[in-house]
Amino acid sequence: MALVELRGVCKSFRKGDETITPLDSVDLDIEAGEFVSLMGPSGTGKSTLLNLVSGIDRPDSGTITVDGTEVTKLSRSKLADWRAINLGYIFQTHNLIPVLTAYENVELPTLLLKLSSRQRQQRVDLALEAVGLSDRADHYPRQLSGGQEQRVGIARAIVAHPKIVVADEPTGSLDVETGEQIQLLLQRLNQELNITMLMVTHDSDVARIASRQLVLDRGKFLETEEETRERQQERRRLKAARQIEESKI
Ligand SMILES: Nc1ncnc2c1ncn2[C@@H]1O[C@H](COP(=O)(O)OP(=O)(O)OP(=O)(O)O)[C@@H](O)[C@H]1O
C-alpha cells in the first residue's frame, strides 16, 4: 500500500448556476520518500488536491488514505489532531506570525503534540538546523530576508516529523536565486531526511527537482498511475543498459 492513496476522488464547486469539477475521479499513489510535483493550467484543481490530501477540505466522493488512515472518514475534531501529527504545509508566502521569533514560529505545531519541553526544544533546534537557520532563532520575521522567512516556514512544516509535507508554490514569491536555494533545500530534505513531498508549482524548472512530475488538466492527470510506473521502469531499464555499456568502455 502506498503512503498516500487517492481513489476515485471527485470534487465540484457551485459557481452561480454553473458547477465546476476540478477533480473528476482522480487516482493517485505516493510512495514513502517520493517527491511529487504537480503542474497544470491555472484553475485546474491543484490547490484543491493539496487541500484534500491535507484534510483541509473533503471530497464529494472517493477515498483518501494516508499511512493506512482513511482521512476522508475522520470527524472534524479528529482531523485537526491528525493534521497536527501527520501533515506539514509550506505556503507560497510563509504565513509566519510577526510577533513571534523564528524559534517560536517553528515551535507552534509542536505545542499540539504530546512532547516534554526538552523533546520540543530538540525538535525545534533540529528543524532550524535542517534549514540552516540555527543562528537566526531569536530573530523576528521582519529581521529576516524573504528566503530566510521561507526557510522558517519550511522548518515549521517539518518540525512535527509529519508523514507528508505539501507545498503550494513554495518558490512563487521569491527571486530566482533565492528560489533556487529553496529548491535545493527541498530536494535535500527529501533525499537526506527522506521527507515525502507533494509540491504544486507553475514553474517547470522547479517541477524537475521532484522525483516524479504530474500534470493535472481538466480534472484528470495527463499521465495515469500505470503509465507513470511504465515510464519509470523504462527509465530504470535505460539507466541499467547505459551503465552496462559504460562498464564495457
Ligand atoms: N471554495 C471554493 N468555492 C468555489 N470554487 C472554488 C473553491 N475552491 C476552488 N474553486 C474553483 O475550483 C477551481 C480549481 O481551483 P484551484 O485553486 O484548485 O486551482 P489551481 O489549479 O490551484 O489554480 P492556480 O494555479 O491558479 O492556483 C477553480 O475554478 C476555482 O475557482
Per-chain topology:
Elements lengths: L3 E12 L2 E13 L4 E5 L6 H8 L7 E6 L2 E2 L5 H11 E4 L11 H6 L9 H14 L15 H13 L5 E5 L7 H18 L2 E5 L3 H4 L4 E6 L2 E2 L3 H24 L1
Parallel strand pairs: 3-8, 3-9, 6-7, 7-8
Antiparallel strand pairs: 1-2, 1-4, 4-5, 9-10
Helix pairs in contact: 4-5, 5-6
Bound molecules: adenosine-5'-triphosphate.
Question: Can you offer a commentary on this structure?
Answer:
Belongs to the ABC transporter superfamily. Macrolide exporter (TC 3.A.1.122) family. Keywords: ATP-binding, Nucleotide-binding, Transport. One of its GO terms (cellular component) is membrane protein complex. One of its GO terms (molecular function) is transmembrane transporter activity. This is ABC transporter ATP-binding protein YtrE. By secondary structure, this protein is α/β, with parallel strands linked by helices. It has one domain: Rossmann fold (3-Layer(aba) Sandwich). Strands 6-7-8-3-9-10 form a six-stranded mixed beta sheet. Strands 2-1-4-5 form a four-stranded antiparallel beta sheet, covered by helices on one side. Helix 6 links the parallel strand 7 and strand 8. Helix 4 packs across helix 5 and helix 5 runs parallel beside helix 6. It is globular and about 50 Å long. The termini are far apart. The structure holds adenosine-5'-triphosphate. Adenosine-5'-triphosphate binds next to strand 1, strand 2 and helix 1.
